[in-house]
Every structure is written in C-alpha cells, then in structure tokens.
Hints:
The structure holds two protein chains of two kinds. By secondary structure, chain A is mainly alpha-helical. Chain A is built from 15 helices and three strands. Chain A has one domain. By secondary structure, chain B is of the alpha+beta class. Chains A and B meet through α7, α10, α12 and α13 of A and α1 and α2 of B.
Amino acid sequence: MINRLLHHLIKHVDSFLMTCLLFTLLIGLFVLYSASGQDIERVYAQSINIAVALSCLWMVANITPYQLERFAPYLYILSILLLIGVALFGTISHGARRWLNIGIAQIQPSEIMRIAMPMMLAWYFSKCEGKPKVGHFAFGGLLLAIPVALIMKQPDLGTALLIMASGFYILFLAGLNWKFLLGGGTLLAALTPVFWFMLHDYQRKRIEILLDPTQDPLGAGYHTIQAIIAIGSGGAAGKGWLNGTQAQLDFLPERTTDFIFAVFSEEFGFLGNLLLLTFFSLIIMRGLTIASQAKGTFSRLLAGSITLTFFTYAFVNMGMVSGILPVVGVPLPLISYGGTSMVTLCLSFGILMSIQTHKKLVAT
Amino acid sequence: MGTEFKNDLHEQHYFRLRLGFSGLVVLALFTLLAFRFAYLQVKQYNHYQTLAESNRISLVPILPNRGLILDKNGVVLAHNFYVYALEITPAKVKDLEATIAEVSQLVEISTSDRKRFNKFRQQSRNFESIPIRTHLNEIEAAKFAVNHYRFPGVEIKSRLFRHYPLGRLGSHMVGYIGRINDKDLINLEKSGDISNYKGSDHIGKSGLEQFYEHRLHGTTGFQQVEIDADGYAVRVLSSNPPIAGDNLILSADSKLQAIAETAFGDRRGALVAINPKTGAVLSYVSQPTFDPNLFVDGIDTENWQLLNESLDKPLVNRPLRGIYPPGSTFKPFVALAGLETGKRTPPFAIHDAGFFTLPGSSHRYRDWKPGGHGIVDMQRAITISCDTFFYGLAMELGIEKLTSFVRHFGFGRKSGLDIKGEIEGLLPTPEWKMRRYKQPWYPGETVIVGIGQGYTLVTPLQLAQATAILANNGVAMKPHLVAQIQNPLTGKSLTSPAIVQDKVKLNSDNIEIVKRGMIDVTLPGGTAASVGANAGYSIAAKTGTAQVIGIKQNAKYDEHSINERHRDHALFIAYAPAEDPKIALAVIVENGGHGGSAAGPIARKVMDYYLLGKLPPVEAIKTDIITPANATGSISTTIPAVVPEEEFHD
C-alpha cells in the first residue's frame, strides 16, 4: 500500500537526474554555510527555497508534455505583457528596472521568460509542417528578439544573454542551416561595435576589465582579481571547508550569490572543482539523453534547450568567476543563494522529467 | 501516418546529430574550464597563495620613541610627549568640507589649522591620515569621542609629539623635526631606510635632529595582524616591539648657552666655543634664534614669512653658514706663517708710518691708526693689531704660501662638525680667482689678505676652530657637539672620541711669540684691554673688525653717519686660561663695530662662567643705539654674507 503510494509519488521523477541534483544541492548548502560566514539562518532560508523549488519540480514533472505544449503560447504572451509592464511600471532597484509589483507580491517577469521562451519556440517549431524553412527561423528569431530586447533594456545583460542562448539552442536543434549560423556569426562580429555602442557604461567597463582586471584593481576589477586569488590560492586540495581566507575575511564580493564558486574553489581546491564539474556533466549528459530519447518535436527541442541552457549558466558563471568571461551577473545553478532562480531552474528540470517519464504515454 | 512516422525518424536522426555536436561543445568548454582551474590552482598556486597571504596579513608599524637630546648636565633640550590629534583620512570621507565644518562645531579648528591641513593634503596621498587639529585638550577629545560615530574617516589619535622645552635656546644647534616630505621619501628610499619609516610622519630637518636622525629615530616595531577587506584588524598574529632611539648628550651646557645668547641682546651674530683639547663644542650660538616648536607640526604661513623674510635672517645657521671676512683675527695665523716660513724672525721690526705702499705704486694701504704705530715687532704687531706690519708680511709671503699655511688651521675647508650644511668659506688663490673671475691675481690683493680682508671669508665655526688649534699648539681636534650617545634601555653610552684631525708642525718658540702677543691684547695697552680687566685668569685674544662696505681712499669711516647694517662686523677670538687653554672661542657681532668693545664682552661672560662658574652681573645689555633698519637700503651690500638656507644631505 505504502509502496504503491510511494511509487505513485515518484513515478514521474527521474531518479538518476534527481540523485545528481540532490547531491549538487547538498554541496551548495555546505558552501553557503561557509560563504555566509557560518550563518545557519541563511542555510535554513535556502533549504526552504530548495523545498519550494523541488515541489514545483514535482508538480511540473506530473504535467504531461502535451499539456505544457498547449500552455506554451499563453505563457509566452503573458510573459511579454509582464515585461512590458516592467518597462512601464516596474520598480527600480540598484539602477535596474526588473521587478513588477502585482499587488500580492513582487515578481521578476524575466525569470518567467526563461521558461516561457524555449517553450514558445519549441511549440512554434512543432507546429511547422515538415522541415522548417528560412521564414520559420526568421519568425522564431523575432519571437526571441522581442523579450531579449525588453530584458536588455531593464538592463539585465546576464538574463538577456541566457534567454537568447536558450532560444538560439531551439533554433539550432530545429535545424537552422549551418550557412546561417556561420553568416549570423560573421554578422554578429560585424555588429559588435554597434552592440558595444548600445551597452551601458558599466557593462562596457566590465568587458574592458575582463580583458585586463588590473586596470582597476580597487574598483570594477576588484571582484575578478579577488575571485581569481581565491581560486588560485585554493590549490589542488583546497584550504578546507570554512578555512578559505579570501571568503572568510570578506575579500570576496557577492560571495553567497554570483561569486559563490570562488568560495567553493578556495576551500575545496582543484579536486573539488573537478567533482563539481563531474556532477554538472552528469546532469547535462542525462538531460541530453532525455532529449535524444524524447518523442515529438516539442519535447525534443525543449529538453535539448533546457539542458544546454543549464550548461550555459554553469559555464558562464564559472568562466566569469575564474576570469575567462566577463562579469555578467549570472548565478551558479543549484549552488548560488536565491529563491527565484532556484525555482525557475527546478521548473525546467521538472519539464525534463515530465518529458522523460511521460514518453510511454505519448507513444501509446 | 507512415510518412509522418518516417519523417519523424528522419527528424529525430537529424536532431540527434545536432545534439551530439552540442554535447561535444559542452565537453570542450568544460575541459577548457578544467584547464583554467588547473592553471590557476596547480601551476600558479604559489603566486596566488602569496597574494592571498598578503591580502590577509598586514604589518602594522609601531613607532619607536625618538631619542632625547640633553645638555651635558641632563637638561632636556628635546623630548616627546603624547598629545591627542584629530586626523582625517580624505579617502574615507565623502564630503570633506562638510565634515570639517561639522567637526569644527565640536572642536575648534582655526584658519591656520585649515591652511596647514590643506598644505599637508597636497603633499600626501588620499588614504593617509592627516592632522586637522593637534594638541586637543581632554575635554575636546572627550567631546569628539562621544560623537565619533557621526564622522567616519575622522579619528582621534594619540601621537608622540616632539617638544623643545627651552624653545629658542640653542635652536640652531638642536634643530627641529618636521613632517616627511617627498624629498625625504626619496632620500629614505635611496638609503634603504624607507621600511623603518613606515608609520613615521616626522624626520629631522636641521641641526642635530637631522645629523643624528639615524640614531634618534629608533627601530620601528611591527605587529603582524590578520585583517579583513576593510583593513580592520581581526587578531594579532605576532608582535615585534620597537626599539627606542638613542639619546644624545651634548658637550654644551644650556646655562652657558643662555648666558651667551643673552649677552648678544638683540644683536645679530654668532659664537662658537670649543674645548681645544678635545674638540667638544661648549657653546654654539646663532643670533637671532627661532622657536623650533613652530616647525614640528608644520609651520604656518604667517610665522614662516616672519622668520624667512626678516632682515635679521633668524633661520640662517650663522656659525656654520654665515661667512665673514676674518679681519684682524686673521693676523695671528699670518704671523705664524711668517715665523714658520722664516720670513720673519723675532728681532725684526718695522717703522710704521701709518701706511704701506707696494713698490712702484702710489696706492696707500692705510693702517687703522692714522700716523702709524712707530716701531713695531711681531709680538707688538699682534697686540696693537698693526696693519702695516701684516701688509708687508703678506706681500713677502705671497698668496700661495700664506693660504697653504693657514689652511692647516681649518680655514677654507669644512671642520666636520656634526651638523649638516657647513660651508667651506674661502681662502683665495690665483687659480681660484682665474676660475671665478677670469682675471689674474694682483699683488694688492695679497696685501689685504694679510689683515683678513679681500676675498678671504670664514665662518664663525672655522674661526673658533682655528683659535682652538692655535691654543692646542697646532693639534687640530675634530669639533663635535654630541659628547655621548646613550642607549635609553641599557643606559650605556658611547662617548664621542677625541679625534686628531690634523697636526700643524710648529716651532714652540714661534708659537710662543704669537701667544704672547695675544695675551698682551687683553692687558693694558692691548686692543681688548677692557676684556681682560679683573678676569682672574689670563686670556689670549685677538680683536677684529671686518668691513661691510668698502671705504674710499682718503674717506673717513664714521660710525655714526653710516647705516647700521653697513657698519663693520665686530670679531673676537680668544682662549683661556692662556697657559692651559680649556676654552677657545670666536664671537662675531654683525655690524657691531669694533671687536674689542662689541664682541669681547660677550666672550668674557662665556669664559667667566665656563672657567669660574661666575654669572654675569644682572644688567640690561647695553646695545648701540640702533636706528630702525632702513629696509630700503641696498640689500645687496647688507651682508650678513650668508648663503641661503637649504636642507643638506651630504
């Protein structure tokens, strides 16, 4: 009886993926305890975030991909409207207009768009008759460009780039011609100066300082330099949990959120980094497997995009903290402190599990 | 249905190709990250490890106590005490003006405080703590402490301040310290002492404070503390206590110094007294003096202008840097040259008609006494200061022989006193004149060197040293102000050794003649008979008068018709007791007129106290009637022939 109930509860949960997620989340809690200056309250708060996020995951996993597919365009339109709402009535904090007060709570529509964007494009390409043509990709590009432009305007460069990436993965997996890819790449390179001109001063500065952090060691380059010192001084085996001097003595900025990887790296060293990379790789491998086995265009494209987007988050965050990518304000998935991004992330994993566990139903 | 299924299979195949490609990209990028980590954490580990350590550990300097300066009896001339100072770190303050305005409501901040603050600010870096007010009293300190939280970046610091309790007394000898400036920093870097000055704000700028800087400063201690990113100390890891600087004990006596300085009254001049047997400087006077306490915190503009622009030039260290024609005080040395070279032998005498002429010239080199002194031999020539006698002697000696002989008495070269900035004075030679003026040497110029005029220039220190060498029968002892350097912890002192600098080989008969002549100077009939009257010990001396402006042929020098600053300088050299010299000195009173009457009494008071412990009678010092200095008078001829004061680092 209990066994059957349990079976019913977890039948839409992918156990391999779930195990990897739980391990990574656990590592995250330990790092957070250290990064927050041994603040157990922070760990409790994050545990609640995780619990909420996992509940969301479970709920989404129990929804069929078919239902998700039907829901996709409405979610997209709602998200666009909310983004316009932010642009018009959003509240400003830290120089950016990202939040919208909807009466009961403050919400961040760009977070919803992270899910809505790939769902919308996957839905759109699943509706195409036969092999998608140039026109389809052009329209898909437009669907992608609107929210990206709105988010970039907030400004939230990190989220905009990642949403752009998630949309681009759909276009790529849907079979966007290599010629276009190369052509687009060339065009992008040509447009870089224009793009550069459009960036805010602080964003430009971040890129300039990425190229040479010593340019401004006490200002904008401080974050990167201190993070690199933390990582480098961690050595092969790390300084040990709670023993990272860079982290414990406040040299690391944003060390529970965007720069938490530096804390992890300082305390657990190169071996710890390899372990974390391994967990991330397992999650990505599992995601790609789910995508390759998925039935139907929508599921396939969505699973592929979700997985590659997860990879992008991880890569961009670790890349920026270790100084090979600009500081764009992207949290480390599953590790960084924060409720909203945790929920969004788990929703996307819920979708992956839904796709994986409902494929027999679709097939029959 | 079948084609759709086939299409789907085709699509899935195509999708998997793309997915596989993506997987490879993922793998490649993660591998890139892994290499990045390996580079940072394995290859560059040591580099970043060092950086992290230096981030975390900070060395906090602990200042040593600066050594004291004491006179020979232990009277404090320079010491330190703790005072509260209000300091601002500009980098930590958002609105500096507003903050200062608010702070000034709690603690009085004057305009000169502000000016000084602004001056320091230009000289220091933004993150350095700069004093805005010093010497806060307890109430002010408490008042600010209560409100401290309102002023981030403003702090009360307890600082060691240098204080000179005797103020103006002997300030040219003691010197002063001041804030370290860029030039000092460069010098400290060059000498490699910069690390010992971490945390030090002050450094010796003049006098003994400058010369003995390396002994007085002490060794800075360090505390190794673990700090957080804001620079706050979390805990102390190790501590290295500072070592206090050494104390200086002078050979001078502050009481003697006071007597000497008071004896000058408000006249300008210098006095140097030396123990001829050891070279120990017993008194070192430069008049007027200044208050060195003004310089410790950085002098304000008004006081600086007062001191710097005063016609009396109080900042000039006259014994060391004031150059004067020696006048007749040069004669004993010329006399010795004549005797030692054999140009003159004791029975030799001249008939002085009141002037000297060079063969084939009608130009008359006049004696100070119109009509002349009659029959004059060597000993008498000194006693009565006969110019004519020395004109002829100089002529016969020739300039080269004359200068090369007197050089042994320290003229024309540095004495090596333990204060920086000494100048050499000038013993002219034909080569020098050719270099300087591109002109040949004229015989007439040799003639006037014989009486200490012409190009010859000496410092009061040189004159005193020459007198000491003469008193010590030709043995030159290196002059020094510091008698002992004392370690404040062990109490052990290092006594400055008596160093023989030079030995002039002198025939004892010859020196006896010169000394006899000098003793007679203070006896009835001598030029300074009044100085020797009722002394109770014998004094050997020589008076001198140095012309400030040239007097035309046949014109008469009238003391009263002439601008006070154009009057002759009064010079006086002496040693006593004549049979066993314990003190040798030189006195110069600028524009004082005659040496015997203006400078002699000062020397007498110094010798009386030094030899007999006799205090001068309490009397207002009678000064010549001095009309207010005519500031519009041509300044170029207004010699104190002094070289502009600079800082010296030789």
